[in-house]
């Protein structure tokens, strides 16, 4: 069968794609930016890639007429104030475009929306479900709460809290109940619901066997890691203070923290969980889901991470808009160093950031990350998803990968830290020369002052970094 997969570069889409192909389907992957789509070579013969924007009806004409089914995995916690209007319009546009094809079945992954008072984010998902359900096809909606898996936002936030804080003073929403589900069970529900007539024109809640408060989830995480943790709840912390708390303590962005805090005040417990019976599925317990996530991290097999989504940083348009480094009105710093071993140097460059660090004056990088968090930026806490691989769109601490070609010997990064301008950071090997180029496009007088004030530090840090990278 021919399956249309929206959100193919997202956390869920990246994990569902190989399962669909394993099940014998050919997949049309819908992406907003083809440069960010980097599937394994083994999958390429089975996929077709189209670049569309759900708010651009003209681009939706690229959708093939002969598709048999479609997955709608597009969600947003956008900083736009009217993002719920944009999400609803995206769903309408998608529905109208899909109605012009041979599609038989559409599957949508939503959130659990059983309470009368919903957050703005959960209400938006409900509106999308309503609009998608009006199409000329069989429709199945799966509603999940907290998804536990390596790289998921929920898991990474808990990881930040427990690994770093022996004592926590927390907001009262930690007493809210939820029903977490492992990522493997989510993918199974999505894949096994496809063309299953018992799921047609229905909505199902999907969750694991455990109903826990967020506090209980955190303490169970601590026990799984053999860590002693104490959690105290303050009843007077406002949603705004809670958002700041989550932002400063974890690797989440502030706009995501706001959406999460508002949603975490709403109980997300399954009511209609009939799907597990239909699929004959016994979902993993919360403890088992944690254990699997730890194994993936320890073996460096994290397939996808929420941190690599554009919402985790300041890049809010296509990477192709930034990949051509500007020169007009820009300031640049070019440094070169002779190297003896090209391959060894490339391996070091491809492991930069994250746990490896920046090879020289790491404390200055951490200080810069701290300042960035203080002013509302991303800081260093995002790290990187994989320690020895880089692809376009990946996050590396304060930076976003715009271009990564190991054979060519070129890595181009874009700064997502708070700056009075825009910055590019490029490593390039030509022959026996390693060059490091910093390009800064200032905004106004403050941008120029920033560049000149930081130049002495650049001289020290970049010279030391080049020396370390050049060593065998």
Give a short synopsis of this structure:
The chain has 13 helices and 19 strands. The chain has 472 residues and is of the alpha/beta class. The longest helix is centred in the C-terminal third of the chain and has 27 residues.
Task: Tell me what you see in this structure.
It is a single chain. The chain is an alpha/beta fold and 472 residues long. It is built from 13 helices and 19 strands. The strands form 5 sheets. A 7-stranded parallel sheet has the order 3-2-1-4-5-6-11, with helices on both faces. A hairpin with a 2-residue loop joins strand 18 (421-430) and strand 19 (433-442). The longest helix has 27 residues, at 444-470. It is globular and about 65 Å long. The model has no long low-confidence stretch (mean pLDDT 87).
Shape: globular
Q: How are the strands of the biggest sheet laid out side by side?
A: 3-2-1-4-5-6-11
Instruction: State Rg.
Output: 23 Å
Portion of residues in helices?
25-40%
Q: Could you report the average pLDDT, rounded to the nearest whole number?
A: 87
Structural class: alpha/beta
Poorly predicted sequence stretches spanning 5 or more consecutive residues: none
Keywords summarizing the entry:
alpha/beta; 7-stranded parallel beta sheet; 13 helices; 19 strands
Topology overview:
Elements: E1 2-6, H1 11-22, E2 26-31, E3 47-51, E4 69-72, H2 83-98, E5 105-111, H3 120-132, E6 138-144, E7 147-148, H4 153-164, E8 167-171, E9 177-178, E10 181-182, H5 183-193, E11 202-206, E12 212-213, H6 214-224, E13 230-234, H7 239-249, H8 254-264, H9 275-278, H10 286-298, E14 331-338, H11 342-350, H12 362-374, E15 395-396, E16 399-405, E17 410-415, E18 421-430, E19 433-442, H13 444-470
Parallel strand pairs: 1-2, 1-4, 2-3, 4-5, 5-6, 6-11, 7-10, 8-13
Antiparallel strand pairs: 9-12, 14-19, 15-16, 16-17, 17-18, 18-19
Helix pairs in contact: 1-5, 2-3, 4-6, 6-10, 7-8
């Amino acid at each position: 069968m021919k399956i249309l997969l929206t959100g193919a570069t997202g956390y869920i889409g990246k994990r569902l794609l190989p399962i669909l192909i394993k099940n014998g389907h050919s997949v049309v992957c819908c992406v907003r930016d083809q440069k960010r789509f980097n599937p394994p070579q083994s999958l390429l013969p089975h996929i077709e890639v189209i670049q569309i924007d759900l708010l651009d009806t003209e681009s939706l004409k690229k959708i093939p007429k002969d598709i048999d089914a479609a997955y709608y995995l597009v969600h947003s916690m956008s900083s736009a104030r009217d993002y719920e209007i944009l999400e609803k319009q995206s769903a309408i546009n998608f529905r109208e475009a899909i109605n012009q094809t041979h599609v038989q079945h559409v599957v949508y992954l939503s959130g659990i929306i059983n309470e009368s008072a919903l957050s703005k984010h959960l209400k938006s998902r409900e509106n999308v479900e309503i609009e998608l359900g009006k199409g000329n096809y069989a429709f199945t909606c799966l509603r999940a709460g907290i998804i536990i898996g390596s790289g998921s936002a929920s898991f990474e936030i808990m990881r930040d809290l427990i690994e770093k804080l022996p004592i926590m003073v927390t907001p009262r929403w930690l007493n809210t109940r939820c029903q977490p589900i492992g990522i493997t069970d989510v993918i199974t529900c999505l894949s096994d619901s496809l063309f299953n007539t018992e799921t047609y024109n229905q909505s199902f809640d999907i969750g694991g066997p455990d109903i826990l408060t967020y506090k209980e989830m955190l303490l169970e995480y601590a026990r799984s890691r053999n860590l002693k943790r104490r959690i105290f709840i303050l009843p007077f912390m406002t949603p705004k203070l809670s958002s700041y708390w989550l932002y400063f303590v974890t690797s989440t962005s502030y706009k995501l923290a706001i959406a999460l805090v508002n949603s975490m005040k709403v109980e997300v417990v399954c009511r209609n969980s009939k799907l597990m019976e239909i699929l004959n599925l016994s979902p993993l317990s919360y403890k088992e889901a944690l254990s699997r996530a730890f194994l993936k991290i320890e073996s460096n097999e994290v397939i996808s991470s929420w941190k690599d989504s554009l919402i985790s940083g300041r890049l809010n348009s296509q990477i192709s808009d930034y990949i051509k480094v500007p020169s007009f009105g820009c300031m640049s710093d070019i440094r070169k160093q002779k190297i003896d071993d090209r391959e060894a140097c490339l391996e070091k460059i491809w492991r930069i950031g994250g746990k490896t660090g920046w090879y020289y004056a790491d404390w200055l990088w951490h200080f810069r990350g701290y300042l960035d968090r203080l002013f509302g930026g991303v800081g260093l806490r995002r790290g990187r998803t994989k320690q020895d691989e880089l692809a376009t769109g990946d996050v590396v601490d304060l930076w976003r990968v715009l271009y990564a070609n190991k054979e060519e010997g070129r890595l181009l990064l874009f700064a997502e830290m708070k700056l009075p301008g825009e910055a590019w950071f490029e490593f390039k090997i030509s022959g026996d020369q390693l060059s490091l180029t910093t390009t800064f496009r200032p905004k106004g007088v403050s941008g120029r002052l920033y560049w000149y004030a930081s130049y002495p530090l650049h001289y020290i840090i970049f010279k030391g970094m080049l020396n370390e990278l050049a060593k065998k």
